[in-house]
Specification:
There is one protein chain. About 35% of the residues lie in helices and about 25% in strands. It is built from 9 helices and 10 strands. A hairpin with a 2-residue loop joins β1 and β2. α5 packs parallel to α6 and α7 packs across α9. About 35% of the residues are buried.
């Protein structure tokens, strides 16, 4: 069975008046259905660029992006993209915000509306459907942004540092909420983050990138001995510190090279 995502020998450079700037160098990896993978690496190494390639927003100069074995441009697999900011519109209520994608794609049906309402109820937002975004906490806004993405029933989620705008305490709580939702909904996800602890606590596998032009330095499978794999409980696992030290060492080895 084909992986849900396969990047094959991806190369990409940016072009400017000053010349060519290599961004990605021979990147190859796969993501299996139901897997949660995290990308970590130095700032500016091309992590978000990889997500943009998968989403079809840019095209590689070399290599290929396959979704369920088909070129990304030919695949009918729906990919959801959750960005750093929640991009909720203040002139729309919470309900109107989470329904926006369905409205744009003209996919509003009684069944989908019931599904979205159930997601709001399940994840603590059912009583806030008529509230404006400014009346919600940062964590509630991020949950709403994820529900808006899930409303379109994506088979694959791209998460571009979705917690980076939050303070540390809120970030811990929201990453736990979002990670739990993604696993409960049995979604496949690829997370970009600078936070090593976040990557270990949420992912089944961590891919470490070098400084630009990015290449894959190492892949670290995450196996934690916890009874229930949630981001918060994962941080208490006895193996957590060992994984942290391993990834920290790899990132700093590259930085000193």
């Amino acid at each position: 069975m084909d992986p849900i995502l396969e990047l094959k020998d991806i190369c990409l450079s940016y072009h400017s008046m000053e010349g060519e700037i290599p961004a990605l160098s021979h990147i190859s990896f796969t993501v299996e259905k139901g897997e949660f993978v995290a990308l970590v690496g130095p700032s500016g190494c091309g992590k978000s660029t990889i997500l943009n390639l998968i989403a079809g927003l840019i095209t590689p100069e070399g290599g290929s992006v396959l979704l369920e074995g088909k070129p990304a441009q030919e695949s009918d697999l729906y990919v959801g993209y959750m960005l750093q900011k929640d991009h909720l519109f203040e002139w729309r209520t919470l309900w109107q915000n989470v329904m926006l994608g369905l409205e744009i794609q003209k996919k509003v049906t009684p069944e989908r509306k019931a599904r979205v309402m159930q997601l709001l109820e399940d994840y603590g937002l059912g009583g806030f459907r008529d509230v404006r975004p400014s009346q919600l906490s940062g964590g509630m806004r991020q949950r709403a942004a994820l529900i808006r993405t899930l409303a379109l029933d994506p088979a694959f989620l791209l998460l571009d540092e979705p917690f980076s705008a939050l303070d540390y305490q809120t970030r811990l709580k929201v990453s736990d909420d979002i990670g739990t939702i993604i696993r409960r909904e049995q979604r496949t996800a690829l997370l970009v983050t600078h936070d090593i602890s976040e990557a270990i606590s949420m992912a089944d596998r961590v891919i470490i990138l070098t400084a630009g032009p990015a290449r894959i330095q190492k892949e670290v499978p995450i196996r934690l001995s916890v009874s229930e794999r949630t981001p918060m409980s994962s941080r208490s696992a006895p193996e957590f510190k060992t994984y942290f030290n391993e990834i920290w060492k790899e990132l700093n080895t590259d930085a000193q090279a």
